[in-house]
Amino acid sequence: MEIDGIISAIVIGVVIGVLGRLVVPGRQRIGILWTILVGIVAALIGTAIAGAFDVADTDGPDWIEWLIQIGLAAVGVVALDRAKSRR
Question: What cellular-component terms does GO give this entry (predicted)?
Answer without folding.
Answer: plasma membrane
